[in-house]
Amino acid sequence: MDPVVPAVPVPGVVPVDIGADPARELAREELSGRVYQEAAPDPVQEALRWIARRLEDLLRAASGVSPGGGWGLLVLLVVLVIVIVVVRRRFGRLARTAAVPGAVLGGTERTADEHRRLADGHAKAGYFDDAVRERMRAIVRSLEERTLLEPRQGRTAGDAAREGGRALPPVADDLLEAARRFDETVYGGRAADAGTDARLREIDAAVAGTRAVAAP
Question: Which of 12, 69, 111, 119 registers the highest number of CB atoms within 10 A of its CB?
Fold first, then answer.
């Protein structure tokens, strides 16, 4: 009888027939990823990390009960993959949003009108998070085009709102609201909707129609 050679997990692939020890190592390797360590702590993250720890405990216990693997381990691995997908969908996009944490404009050189057209397209398709991002970029770029803000990469929404509010006092509160909604959507994990997009559209129009106050 030929000796049994334990299956060796291939990175990025979950084999159908997997032994207990390789399964446990595969889970541990994935759970040690930076996405679990560096995401901003919140109740959702803590719950996902708790589930991930329990899954690792189950895999460790299962390796002592059913050496050589089995359907039970496969089911646990499927659940683990689901957790991984949820975590990456929850936090992965946040890490890619901008080169500078909190920045409104990353490496874009688009005009305000171009950002508005992108926002309209996202809103029409129902992607309101992306629409909100582009509308805030349109607001900031329009302030730069009117020379009310000095063009600067990496400026945060809050910075732009405060600086723009000093040049346009009548819409200072509106700018702060736009910055808050932008941060909540892009960095706070709060999903935008048609109402959020409509409100930023109103603020963009109000900012564009407000005359600047001369500096003393």
Answer: 119
Residue-wise pLDDT for 7-43, tens only, equals: 444 444 434 344 455 555 655 555 555 444 444 455 6
Give the list of residues 6+ apart from residue 57 with CB closer than 8 angstroms, or none: none
Please tell me the distance from the alpha carbon of residue 107 to that of residue 74, in angstroms, as a whole number. Answer: 43
Distances (CA, A) of 196 to 93, 103, 135, 155, 180: 19, 19, 10, 22, 11
Q: What is the residue type of 138? A: A
| CA-CA-CA-CA torsion sign (119, 122, 126, 131) | negative
Sequence spans of domains, the chain: 20-96, 112-208
Q: Which residues contact 183 (CB under 8 A, 6 or more apart)?
A: 102, 157, 158
**pTM for the structure as a whole:** 0.54
Of 208, 135, 132, the residue nearest 168 (C-alpha) = 208
Q: For the beta carbon of residue 211, count every other beta carbon within 10 angstroms.
A: 9
Q: What is the pLDDT of residue 178?
A: 95
Query: For the chain, what is the mean pLDDT?
Result: 74
Question: In three state form, how does the secondary structure of 70-88 look?
Answer: CHHHHHHHHHHHHHHHHHH
Q: In this structure, what DSSP letter does residue 184 have? A: H
- Inter-CA distances, 186 with 28, 32, 95, 137, 191, Å: 30, 26, 10, 12, 8
Query: By the 8 A CB rule, do 103 and 96 touch?
Result: no
Phi and psi at residue 39, in whole multiples of 5°?
-65, 145
